[in-house]
Specification:
By secondary structure, this protein is of the alpha/beta class. It is built from 8 helices and 11 strands.
Length: 225
């Protein structure tokens, strides 16, 4: 899971970033609102954590501008200002949650997990699976990357759907054979490798950022790097 942290206090940034990375989150950090906005518009994050008092562009203005740009990523605001009016103002700007400093890291972690879980549930209800700029619409049976439509065969679609339902997980060839082809894995064939290669050519070849990665001796993993 990739998180954007926008915080101008070095100690707070280091504390949060270190704690999240120890909990297996991938964290990009920005120290001002303008840089934070650029990163939020340029990348696909599962969550944005932002302070309110920021140089360049304050957290509330940043939130408003991101929502106007149709960035629907959950936003968690951090601030030392904990009055009711301040909290309401943050929500009015489009924030999804609000945490007052100082806070226990375990509370921050709980808020993050709740926001990501809620967002995942909403996305699944729409039957849209996505990673980075790759999107798969389960209902419409369509696939696109960077808004470019990609034509897949039925098996390629099923293979990609399985990867997207298991992001970041190393999936063995045997698991893919069982779940996609409903057969026991036969080490004498290269069926899985052939179809993974087909899929790579369609969703990775023309793009700088590769999403399907080989874990030698173990299988494949769909992830951002």
């Amino acid at each position: 899971m990739k998180i954007l942290l926008i915080e101008d206090e070095p100690k707070t940034t280091q504390y949060i970033k270190k704690g999240l990375e120890e909990n297996s989150y991938d964290v990009d950090a920005a120290t001002d609102g303008i840089t934070g906005k650029h990163l939020a518009l340029s990348n696909n994050y599962q969550l944005i954590i932002t302070d309110i008092m920021l140089p360049g562009l304050d957290g509330k203005s940043l939130c408003v501008q991101l929502r106007k740009a149709d960035v629907m990523t959950p936003i968690l605001m951090l601030t030392a200002l904990g009055t009711t009016d301040e909290i309401v103002s943050g929500f009015d700007c489009g924030a999804d949650d609000y945490l007052v400093k100082p806070f226990e890291f375990k509370e921050l972690l709980a808020r993050i997990k709740a926001l990501i879980k809620r967002q995942t549930r909403l996305t699944q209800e729409e039957n849209i699976l996505s990673l980075s700029d790759l999107k798969l619409d389960v209902n419409k049976r369509t696939v696109s990357r960077s808004e470019k439509n990609i034509e897949l065969t039925a098996k390629e679609f099923a293979l990609l759907e399985y990867f997207l339902n298991n992001p970041g997980k190393v999936i063995s060839r045997a698991e893919l054979a069982r779940n996609i082809w409903k057969v026991d894995f036969d080490t004498g064939t290269n069926m899985v490798e052939v179809y993974v290669n087909y899929l790579r050519k369609k969703i990775d070849k023309e793009f700088d950022k590769k999403l399907i990665h080989t874990q030698f001796g173990m299988g494949y993993v769909l992830k951002e790097e």
